[in-house]
Write a structure and sequence with these properties.
mainly alpha, elongated
Length: 154
């Protein structure tokens, strides 16, 4: 608790995870959301992704798919592989006010595949992407999503 209370975003994210699962603390989705919100505001992409998931499911907070998309996109734009995969699915299926856009979905899936996501590689194959799918990015750095655009651009 001490590190989380001192605005340590990683500790806040981990404490939120503990509250979500009831590990060493009483299970409490609302408290988990509070810790993730602080960490997400500080730029922690795991917390941003977790907030998106909670907003999608209505866990500890009012269900709000549009806000979920915003948190996922923010995490995805900063290299969070699962968020990139999720944005690919949202773009493919047209959820949260997004029209289905196969090209945008492919761009998100490619980014996730480059970070090592097997699921993203499978999605690229299903969408008929060229067989030249990168298997894993060799370096770790924030990913620029130039050309993918944002939901607000619509």
């Amino acid at each position: 608790h001490a590190a989380a209370e001192q605005a340590n975003a990683l500790a806040q994210t981990k404490l939120g995870n503990m509250y979500l699962k009831g590990l060493g603390v009483p299970k409490n989705d609302f408290t988990a959301i509070g810790w993730w919100a602080q960490a997400a505001a500080a730029g922690n992409t795991d917390a941003q992704f977790n907030l998106g998931n909670s907003l999608q499911n209505g866990s500890g907070v009012r269900k709000d798919i549009v806000s979920a998309i915003q948190w996922w996109r923010l995490a995805a734009e900063h290299g969070h592989t699962d968020a990139q995969l999720t944005m690919g699915i949202a773009s493919r299926d047209g959820i949260g006010g997004i029209d289905p856009e196969p090209d945008r979905a492919m761009a998100w899936f490619r980014l996730a595949a480059e970070s090592g996501s097997t699921q993203a590689r499978e999605q690229l194959v299903k969408l008929g992407s060229p067989k030249r799918v990168v298997h894993q990015r060799q370096e770790t750095r924030p990913v620029s999503v130039v050309g993918v655009g944002s939901i607000e651009d619509r």
